[in-house]
Amino acid sequence: MRTNNILFSILLFLILLIGCKPNKEENNSIEGIWESIGYGEILKIDANSYKYFDITDFSCLPAKEGNISEATNSMQVSNDTLIIKRGFSKYRYVRIKKLPDFCNQNSKDKNDISYNFEVFANTYKNHYAYFDLNKIVWGSLYINSKNKINSKSTEVDLYLVLEDMIEKLKDNHGSIEPTDEVYGLAENQIQSELAEEKTEELKEYGDFEISGIVADYYLQEDLTKDTWLMKWGKMENNVGYIQIKAMFLYADFNLDDSLVKENGFVSTYMDAFDSLNYEQQISKEVAGISKLMDTIMQDLKHTRHIIIDVRFNGGGQDVVALEILRRFNADKKQIAIKKARHINSYTIKTPIYLEPAKTPYTKPVYLLTSQQSASATDMMALGSMELNNLKRIGSHTNGAISDALQKTLPNGWYFSLSNEVYTDNNDKCYENIGVPVHYELNYPDDRQTFFRSIANDLEKDKRKILNAINELQSE
Q: Average pLDDT for residues 239-264, to the nearest whole number?
């Protein structure tokens, strides 16, 4: 009996010991293979490097790689979930045991027309966020488009089919970038198919051109220095004015003058920009615009109020837009919410916050917007809805608020699509409809008609803005 008691005691001890043994330790190392939640990526990290792959249901294409030391500051692991922070966005990845088998297969012909079509179509099927909003029947669009591709199809045929799909999808951030040769051949084909019509030739303005014309007319005292992307100074009666032409191109890359002369500023800039990892791109853009805004706010701090003109601004980087906007914000506040399409639902919601400035400008601010105010400029307008000292004048923004999910086809063509949904704090989405204004000036929808209406009577344009401000101030 005593022996049995001893054996029972030992057995009980072992059971308790096993029961109290801690679970397998969490693996909090960033090394390994990670699959994104909602963005069609796999990230492979080892001790010294990282490598991104764009994936669909059947393809796995190398995207971006670099030294892991460049990216570790933005990475955090918790419960086998990798969180990567870029600007205000957080991207989540789950650990997987190995790369999908098709990541190790190189038998596919990367230039095969049907293969490239299927990669494009599958990416849209899995990630496009606005099928319902835009009343798109994907199955019909896919079949009808696929039937236009056959064994004799050329790259030009492929490009025209993909362009047609993007147009039918009504994707605000949808784009496809073929080679210059393919683009040129496609344009020639399109032009040859159009009936020749004699039309009155009207002056056409570029975004940067019209914004410069307006700023030169508005400014009584031009204080602009060290940039061509913005103009600022004072109008009559000590009114501050800031003209913002774009929400990107602000990083200081110390570009080679000879390359800029040969290839143009934007092309040379983008070559330098694309050589950086995602985190460095954001950091340098924010540093560049922050330095400019320090100067601008110092120059305009004693003005009665400030007008910010983004009517001709087609967008860029959200972080740039919010770095500008925060100079008029006194307290950290939530300004929006975002989520991304994931399988048949969405990723978890991510709140977006506007940080405060150390010495914010809290006097009245008037944001001028139009239907041409798009993308990151939409984001600025969306965020402005939470600032009590800011009023919007003009017409609603473009409504292209989702980030552009950047992808690459097997043949090397870049393309992008809208995979995210942004809302205000009350879950209202402004995609397509744009962010509304406090004072409507009924600008024309058509881009060139709008630009010409401004350029043809600059004084009338300015007076309408100042009259709107006077009415808003008297409310």
A: 94
> Which pLDDT band, with edges at 50, 70 and 90, does 196 fall under?
low
Confidence of residue 19 (pLDDT cuts 50, 70, 90): low
According to CATH, what is the number of the domain 207-399+434-474? 3.90.226.10
pLDDT in tens, 212-222: 999 999 999 99
Q: What's residue 22's pLDDT?
A: 47
Neighbours of 185 (CB within 10 A): 16
pLDDT higher than 60, residue 195: no
What's the chain look like in SS3? CHHHHHHHHHHHHHHHHHHHCCCCCCCCCCCEEEEECCCCEEEEECCCEEEEEEECCCCEEEEEEEEHHHCHHHEEEECCEEEEEECCEEEEEEEECCCCHHHHCCCCCCCCHHHHHHHHHHHHHHHCCCCCCCCCCHHHHHHHHHCCCCCCCCHHHHHHHHHHHHHHHCCCCCEEECCHHHHHHHHHHHHHHCCCCCCCCCCCCCHHHHHHHHHHHHCCEECCCCCCCEEEEEEHHHEEEEEECCECCCCCCCCCHHHHHHHCHHHHHHHHHHCCCHHHHHHHHHHHHHHHHHHHHHHHCCCCCEEEECCCCCCECHHHHHHHHHHHCCCCEEEEEEEEEECCEECCCEEEEECCCCCCCCCCEEEEECCCCCCHHHHHHHHHCCCCCEEEEECCCCCCCCCEEEEECCCCCEEEEECEEEECCCCCECCCCCCCCCEECCCCCCHHHHHHHHHCCHHHHHHHHHHHHHHHHHC
Task: Give the amino acid at 270.
Answer: M
Taking the domains of the chain in order of start, what are their residue ranges?
A: 32-104, 113-192, 207-399+434-474
CA distances from 226 to 78, 135, 252 (A): 44, 47, 11
Give yes or no for residue 380 having a pLDDT over 70: yes
Q: What is the pTM of this model?
A: 0.85
Quick one: pLDDT at residue 2?
A: 43
The whole-number pLDDT of residue 347 equals 94
Query: Is residue 24 pLDDT above 80, yes or no?
Result: no
